[in-house]
Design a protein that fits this description.
53% of the residues lie in helices and 16% in strands. With 158 residues, the protein is α/β, with parallel strands linked by helices. The protein has a 5-stranded parallel sheet with strand order 2-1-3-4-5, with helices on both faces. Helix 3 links the parallel strand 3 and strand 4. The N and C termini lie far apart (59 Å). 24% of the residues are buried.
């Protein structure tokens, strides 16, 4: 089946962290949790995560701020804001800070799983495209180098 996706759940409410973790683990994901922005930042600097589910209100910072403070990974970590305080301003700010999706609490399990699955599929396609792009660029560059060598190398007279 391939490598299992690693997900970081960032929420100050222990019951929410446990519930979401259990749901995701039952679907085969590897799940880690953080109860604060500071802990999430530390974990992203020492570990790799494909996706982070981030509560918009944390005890030490806003989830919106955390979007830009977490370490980026390759492929780029998907970041999903989860909020019990939906507003147009929060949604716009989340999008402006590169949130990949926005989920409203109380979280519907099917919506959560569908959003996670779709975002991880997008991430996988982006990674595949990036790898194909690198191979194509290498081949194009090598062809140009060989063409250049042919035009600048003096030919021996027969």
């Amino acid at each position: 089946m391939g490598e299992r996706a690693r997900i970081l759940v960032v929420d100050d409410d222990e019951s929410i962290r446990k519930a979401i973790s259990t749901i995701l683990e039952e679907k085969g994901y590897l799940v880690d949790t953080a109860e604060s922005g500071k802990e999430a930042i530390q974990k992203t600097h020492t570990g790799f995560y494909n996706l982070a589910l981030i509560d918009i209100r944390l005890p030490d910072m806003e989830g919106i701020e955390l979007l830009t403070r977490m370490k980026e990974t390759t492929p780029r970590m998907v970041k999903i804001i989860v909020t019990g305080f939906p507003s147009l301003q929060n949604a716009m700010e989340a999008v402006n800070r590169n949130a990949d999706a926005y989920i409203i609490k109380p979280v519907k399990i099917d919506d959560l799983l569908d959003t996670v699955r779709k975002q991880l599929e997008k991430q996988k396609k982006a990674k595949e495209y990036s790898e194909e792009e690198k191979i194509t660029e290498f081949i194009e560059t090598r062809v140009k180098e060989l063409e250049e060598e042919q035009t600048t190398t003096p030919r021996k007279a027969s």
